[in-house]
Every structure is written in structure tokens, then in C-alpha cells.
């Protein structure tokens, strides 16, 4: 709960964020293979595959 989080992190400047943030940042640590199935991201950059695109745009 929010109350327990505040107690456990007292003075550490920790703030709550939406749960989907935790699921998203998990992609940052994802290991991608070298498969070449190029994907163009909405940032107009070309990525080797979808996994690489998600990993580079996580968080």
C-alpha cells in the first residue's frame, strides 16, 4: 500500500508511479537476439528488430 511504501522509504525521496511504469522499465533489461527483422520506430529510427526497439525506448 501507499502507506507502507511511505513508511519503508521515509526520507529517500521515493514517489509512487503508475504500475505500468514497472512493466515498461522491465523491457530495459531485456536481452534481444541478433535477428534482423528491421522495424521503424515512431522516432523515425530504424531498429534491428522489435525487441531492440522496445528495449531502446523503455521507461
Can you tell me about this structure?
This protein is mostly helical. 36% of the residues lie in helices and 7% in strands. The protein has a domain at 20-59: Wheat Germ Agglutinin (Isolectin 2), domain 1, CATH 3.30.60. It is built from three helices and two strands. The chain has a two-stranded antiparallel ribbon. It is elongated and about 45 Å long. It comes from Bracon brevicornis. Residues 23-59 form the Kazal-like domain. InterPro entries: Kazal_dom, Kazal_dom_sf. This is Kazal-like domain-containing protein.
Strand order of the largest sheet: 1-2
CATH class of the domain at 20-59: Alpha Beta
Radius of gyration: 16 Å
Molecular shape: elongated
Structural class by helix and strand composition = mainly alpha
Mean pLDDT: 81
Number of strands: 2
Which regions have little confidence, pLDDT < 50, spanning 5+ residues? none
Q: What is the beta-strand fraction?
A: 5-15%
Please give the share of residues in helix.
Answer: 25-40%
Distance between the termini: 22 Å
Short summary:
This protein has 59 residues and is mainly alpha-helical. It has three helices and two strands.
